[in-house]
Amino acid sequence: MVTELGHFALVLAFFVALVQAIVPMIGAQKGWRGWMAVADPAANAQFLLTGFAFAALVHAFVTSDFSLRLVVENSHSLKPMLYKISGTWGNHEGSMLLWVLILTLFGAAVALFGGNLPPALKARVLAVQSMIGAAFFAFILFTSNPFLRLARPPFDGQDLNPLLQDPGLAFHPPFLYLGYVGLSVAFSFAVAALIEGRVDAAWARWVRPWTLAAWIFLTIGIAMGSWWAYYELGWGGFWFWDPVENASFMPWLFAAALLHSAIVVEKREALKSWTILLAILAFGFSLIGTFIVRSGVLTSVHAFANDPERGVFILIILGVFVGGALTLFAARAQAMEARGVFGMVSRESALVANNVLLAVAALVVFVGTIWPLVAEMAFDRKLSVGPPFFDKAFTPFMIALALILPVGAMLPWKRARLGRAMRPLVPALGLAIAVAGLAWAMQTGRSLLGPVGLFLGTWLVAGAAVDLWSRTGQRRDWRRLARLPRADWGRVTAHAGLGVAIIGVSGLTAWQQEDIRVVQEGVPWQVGGFELVLEDVRQVEGPNYISTTGQVGLSTVEGREIATLHPEKRVYPVAQMPTTEAAIDYRPLRDVYVVIGDAQDGGGWTMRVYIKPLTNWIWAGALIMALGGGLSLTDRRYRVAAGARKVPAGVAAE
Amino acid sequence: MSAGVARAAWARIVAALLVVVLAWPALAVQPDEMLDDPALESRAREISQGLRCPVCQNESIDESNAPVAKDLRLLVRERLVAGDSNAEVVEYITDRYGEFVLLEPRTGGANLLLWAAGPLMLLLAAGLAVLYLRRRSRAPAPAEEGLSDEEEARLQELLHR
Questions:
Q1: A201 at B interface, C-beta within 8 A
Q2: What is the ipTM of this complex?
Q3: What's B77's domain CATH number?
Q4: Whose CA, among A206, A432, A469, B134, lies 20 to 30 Å from B140?
Q5: A572 CA to chain B: closest CA distance, Å?
Q6: Chain B: nearest CA to A407, how far in angstroms?
């Protein structure tokens, strides 16, 4: 019954979306207030209806309603409650429902927080947002309906992919989708601005918080996915340049570029048409990401639904929205004349350089991701484009970006002198060189990677500190920092976070140690300054799996005990899949990563031990970046804008 | 189905599968595959990390636990012991499995486009950016425009509230 109501709510939401896509748009065109005002209640209704549909699906999963095909295919009565809930979006149909739920959530949020928007702009934004919604409602209802029943329900389900039964991955998709779909708001604002033919500082100020929010969620989502891959896949890699990872990374890069170019529009009324284009591209690449994952043209472990019909449908959605927006852009971009004047050396030009590097880097990832497809179709070559390509083709852009970033952040607007902006940065540069030199002297191998990475990371963190220091004014008055706009704090924090992440990536890549061997119980062995001993191995039964659990004592070579670790090898009988659960001793400067392998015929167990330096800095860096975004989001100028809404709404109660 | 019945069914499944579990394919490189000569073994690891497991999705044969990946790992080591150079080993494998197994695509032919895409796009974008910046730095400063009537009205409204 609840299921049918949910199904019905979804159909209703589709019709509301159609109305919201058409009526406010006509109203804005004709200047009819009543028609424009339809957008707000419609956006709320869409969100509530979709929310109800989603809740109905969660209910079916929680109660293990095996008359639903989707529940049978992705759940099991013995599965822990957390994964019954997360199983709702651990499959194609449910994840698309979550996708539109978040889309309607953002629509409702624009309706709620957009009180200070000009009514016509708001109506157009919500109409465009609703067009996207209508397209995806149609996609769900016609190709991926989660509410289909089975004529003969089985006694139990087929269980969720065990790799997905993990707390990290349970919440990874919602964050990623909040990011992907959040970019739809920037897209809707861009299209609405193109229809109006007007982009100004106020527009940029409205778009920026939405883009920031989307970028924060994407950052957290990507970091969670990467951490999951690190501890779950069993050899401690954190990034594989997998098509699905790239699908989330490209929008992240474009969103980062958009954040920076929107500042130029806001402060200097320049880069307008480029910012519009970026907003279109950022969401366009979110759609491309959805297409890549859902169609299965580039198969990967994460793509749980591969179906050509669905792929074609998404490709049509992609073509209509991105193609339509780009056509509109070609017709209207000329109207966005720039007003600000600035020199070749200025904050503006540094932000242009940032945009060039981020956008080209994202396109390089794109070309690498689709190249196997292009090569097969156009040149009849079946080939792979793997991590070695991306490492070589992508990394130089990040190095260039990290090199210019601290300088760019110090440049004043309009006109700058490079030497003058550089002078306060000299100590930061010195520190970075010293750290890199120290790393070079201390490392055993003669690899450049580690020292260069440490140099760049230190340069970024110290550069951010200098940036902050320079805000204390001539008299070095620290109290001024308390009055500094949150956006400045956000910038400094996010830039430092990038530095921390770069230190982590290069430390792990350059100085990882690995040891693979057969180990007898009770016989200690040494790996890079640590002594390990396999104390015990036993079979343990979990709620829906069986596990081979080892107990490993970890101590220093001198015999000081550090930790007892429990690496596991699990088998999920229903899904017939094994997983490895690495045991990790997390420390700020290094992780010890222990994996238990197979029992050997001659007795003993295969053990794999990795010493992974600075690994946690990768995720710490990502979190610091997200925190910086959050600080920027709470900047007073957005709060003032939000406050301005409350007065008329409270008085007039429209 | 009551919880008790489910538990009983579960226990049977577990018992039946314990046998299977012990024979489950092993993860990645195994100690018994490894060569005694550390120099040769580290070359083998390096080569394996650049070769894609033919039946997996974006995994190297060094990481994969598929049987064919194990065969390839052994083959790589066999060739190394026979005295092949790294390049010869890679060629030996690609002759049999196609260029699909190369994680780093070759630079020849159409792939030139792939490798050149980054630098070319950077040149293009940088060129456009410089043109734009020159135009902005030479543009005359915009005349200060007054407020439109609508904006003037809104300003008055705000001031006199």
A1: no
A2: 0.84
A3: 1.10.8.640
A4: A206
A5: 9
A6: 18
